[in-house]
């Protein structure tokens, strides 16, 4: 299963842990992906969506 948001396309980012001694070890930051049923148009669709997009979506539904 790909770890990618189907709304914004957010994917894992790569970098390094840096210790106090300046040792670099690889690490990755993975987005918080949830599988949710979202109303798109007039039908419910299952999407792999990051929590940031889910939060934004709920805010826009509250206004309109």
Return the structural class: alpha+beta
**What is the CA–CA distance across the termini?**
33 Å
What count of helical segments does DSSP give?
A: 1
The counted number of beta strands is 4
Instruction: Give the quaternary arrangement of the chains.
Output: single chain
**Number of structurally distinct domains:** 1
Shape: elongated
Let me know the average pLDDT.
91
Q: What percentage of residues falls in helices of 4 or more residues?
A: 10-25%
The low-confidence runs, each spanning 5 or more residues with pLDDT under 50, are: none
Strand order of the largest sheet: 1-2
Your description of this structure?
A two-stranded antiparallel sheet has the order 1-2. The protein is elongated and about 55 Å long. Helix content is 20%, strand content 44%. The N and C termini lie far apart (33 Å). A hairpin with a 5-residue loop joins strand 1 (13-18) and strand 2 (24-29). The protein has one domain (13-63). The mean pLDDT is 91. With 64 residues, it is α+β, with helices and mostly antiparallel strands. It contains one helix and four strands.
Structural descriptors:
single chain, alpha+beta, two-stranded antiparallel ribbon, 1 helix, 4 strands
Short précis:
With 64 residues, the chain is of the alpha+beta class.
Write the topology of this structure.
Layout: E1 13-18, E2 24-29, E3 33-40, E4 43-50, H1 51-63
């Amino acid at each position: 299963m790909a770890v990618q948001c189907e709304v914004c396309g957010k994917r894992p980012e790569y970098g390094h842990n840096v210790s106090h001694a300046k040792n670099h070890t690889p690490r990755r930051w993975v987005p918080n992906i949830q599988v949710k049923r979202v109303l798109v148009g007039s039908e419910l669709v299952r999407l792999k969506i990051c929590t940031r997009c889910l939060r934004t979506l709920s805010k826009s539904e509250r206004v309109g």
